[in-house]
Amino acid sequence: MIGPMIRLFGRALLHKTVTAPAGRAVATATGGLLDVKLGLRLMRDRRIPLTSKLVALTLGGVFALGLEAAQIPLEVVVGALMPLLGIAELAFDGIELLAASVLVASIALPFLAPRALVLKIQQEGDGRVYDAVGSRVR
Q: What angle (nearest 5°) sits at the alpha carbon of residue 39, between those of residues 15 and 66?
């Protein structure tokens, strides 16, 4: 099982994944690729331009609608076979659209906002010190 994974993903990536501390993702100096907490902090911050926030929310909405469109055939079958379950599924679709939109927006926002401002807000939030290029100093 592990042999094909090594050939597929490469030795370095697999070693980095396996040797990571338990319960923690391998993070870079910017907090990792999927730093949702930073994205939510940026979403609340008034210094981030409104256009960056709107673009991130639009990307999140498009992703959520695409996900919902992919689920439509399955929901039609479930709704036809089990009408009560189909009605309950419709109730959760609205929650799913909102949650997926905000989640994707918070992941995308650190890449859409000005880099210097993201680093400054990140420094304020986590107490770590970074240099101008984003490398952790201490």
A: 85
pLDDT digits (tens, 9 = 90+) for 35-94: 889 999 999 999 999 999 999 999 999 999 999 899 888 888 877 888 777 777 777 888
Q: Which residues pair with 136 in a beta bridge?
A: 130
pTM for the full model?
0.64
Query: Which tokens belong to 46?
Result: 């008034």
Residues in a beta bridge with 130: 136
Closest among 56, 28, 58, 30 to 44, alpha carbons compared: 56
Alpha helices in 10-135 (DSSP H): 11-18, 36-44, 50-81, 83-112, 115-126
Which residue, among 45, 93, 48, 50, has the nearest Cα to 69 in the 3D structure? 93
Task: Parse the chain into domains and list their residue ranges.
Answer: 29-126
From first CA to last CA, the distance across the chain in angstroms is 39
